[in-house]
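Trying the structure run again after the queue cleared.
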Amino acid sequence: MIDKITTKQRASLRGLANALDSVMQIGKEGLTENSFDAIEALLQARELIKIKVLKNCPLSPKEVCAEICKTLNAIPVQVIGSMVVLYKYSTKKDFKHIELI
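Done. Tokens:
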């Protein structure tokens, strides 16, 4: 399991995230138990995900990122504008993992 990444690895993940579309939105409900479950499932399926924080969310994108990372042991890759990019090594078997240089 990976709990820390280098600056070079973070830059590589940011590059990969550029091509991604957001797979989830956090809105006026903020972060709920259901959203944590959905984010965990997405991280297990993809390892690298992009989340959009809507304007009506009670938390800022940085707060959303910090809360998700603390709760799910994910690694923050980038918070830019209203987008949050997260990485977490998948524990699924027969999964093609993202290779960190």
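The helical segments are 7-18, 33-46, 61-72. Worth checking whether this holds up in the mutant runs.
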